[in-house]
DNA sequence: TCCTATTTTCCTGCTT
DNA sequence: CAAGCAGGAAAATAGG
């Protein structure tokens, strides 16, 4: 790849993102991150992979869909590819949620805006508002065709075993999910999107679910950005992580700093869990 | 408005 | 000494 997560020596944070972001805490003040919107100024056909990913987040947020039940990997594609999927492709890729996704994209393709009011759509630079601030991906390299995305085989073959795995027992629409995504899910999603994970967190043992924060403060900033909280720190984020031990969403890994392990109650992190 | 789950904040003390 | 880690307590949030 062209982007090496090595530009680190200088300033851990600023070098990672926002080298040119005067927008940091300013324009974020709206009704919360739910007001983030997908780039309606451009057609979904022209979305980058990142924007597609962002759209997925929006949809599950709006519909209160359990993030862990949506196989993001199946949508590792750009807008052009996304738009070429038909209804069945969506169902195949996302089970029952595919229906919702299909409706959303269909709506957007026809110029609609889904049921999101974009009244406050002022900010153009929303790349700055999301989970993965553009991390300085040059415009042309937002996605890399060489990344073995599942995009190609999403419709052709019924092969993908993992596509249907999480849906066998239904699309559960969570009742109480404050912000669409919980911290652990946010962390998991970063782990699951290596192309957009500029060396923030890394798997230590993929099959065991052990991972380590490489840039703890950077991740905290990202999390804070998602929660529209510019004062988030790793100190505070880690406290929230520690609460997960009791709930067995995370298991304690002692001795090693910045290392955590997914527990029995954390789902959706496994690569190919049958 | 009250209730609940999930953080977010702060803090003291201990460990690497 | 500078980060992390452990948890307790209590406030803040946001959906129900």
TrEMBL record:
Identify the residues that the record assigns to the ETS domain, covering every copy.
181-263
UniProt entry keywords in alphabetical sequence:
DNA-binding, Nucleus, Transcription, Transcription regulation
Identify one Pfam family in the record.
SAM_PNT
Subcellular location(s) per record? Nucleus
Residue ranges of the PNT domain? Answer: 27-112
Principal subcellular localization: nucleus
Regarding protein family, the annotation reads: Belongs to the ETS family.
| Name of this protein | ETS homologous factor
Q: Which organism is it from?
A: Xenotaenia resolanae
Taxonomic lineage per UniProt?
Eukaryota, Metazoa, Chordata, Craniata, Vertebrata
